[in-house]
Amino acid sequence: MAGRVLSFSQYLGGSDNVKVIEMLPEHQKTYTYDFDLDITDYAFTANYSTIVIDELTYNINTGEPNFATSNVIGYLGSASTTIDPSTYVTVVSAPAGTVKFTIPQNRYTGWIFPDARTNVVMTIVEFTWTIRFLPTPDVVDSHRWAIIERYTADVVAGDPTDASNTVTFVDITGA
Predict the structure, then answer these.
(1) For every residue of the chain, which 3-state class applies, written as one string?
(2) Is residue 119 within 8 Å of residue 113, measured between CB atoms?
């Protein structure tokens, strides 16, 4: 490989605000955030990108994914897709600081290997909140999910990096 390959942790930029989960592409999940303060001046955005990692192993004792030797080899579709906040972000109570964020379904609709351990499809979803402190600069923070997309009979079993896939694979390895 040509030295341009990012390890999984380099791609994420650290793991402080990242949660790894596994989902079927057609599923969605809602999370409730409790900021425990007035969020009237907060703005919320979200986006995702779907990447392919070369290999994935699991800890034999805990069953947790192990990315120690995983590299990002490319992405699928657009480099980034915006999630509509009017559909997927609900401010339940601004004075109480409660917000619901839904990770949308159908994030990726292309091919997936059943029980993939190589060429694993992973969608990185980022939920961002911006605190507006006029006249001082805004404060921006975010939370990310690394979603291991799992095979279901609703998708085609196959290599997501194959040129025939309905979603274009962009190789970033320079190979």
Answers:
(1) CCCCCEEHHHHHCCCCCEEEEEECCCCCEEEEEECCCCCCCEEEEEEEEEEEEEECEECCCCCCEECCCCEEEEEEEEEEEEECHHHHEEEEECCCCEEEEEECCCCCCCCECCCCCEEEEEEEEEEEEEECCCCCCCEEEEEEEEEEECCCCCCCECCCCCCCCCCCEEECCCC
(2) yes
The answer to whether residues 141 and 94 touch, using CB atoms and an 8 Å cutoff, is no
Q: Tens digits of per-residue pLDDT, 12-64?
A: 555 556 788 999 999 999 999 999 999 999 999 999 999 999 999 998 898 88
Is the distance from CB of 122 to CB of 22 less than 8 angstroms? no
pLDDT tens digits for range 54-85: 999 998 898 888 888 889 999 999 889 999 99
| pLDDT tens figures, 147-173 | 999 998 888 999 999 999 999 999 998
CA distances from 135 to 34, 108, 138 (A): 26, 40, 9
Single pTM value for the model: 0.87
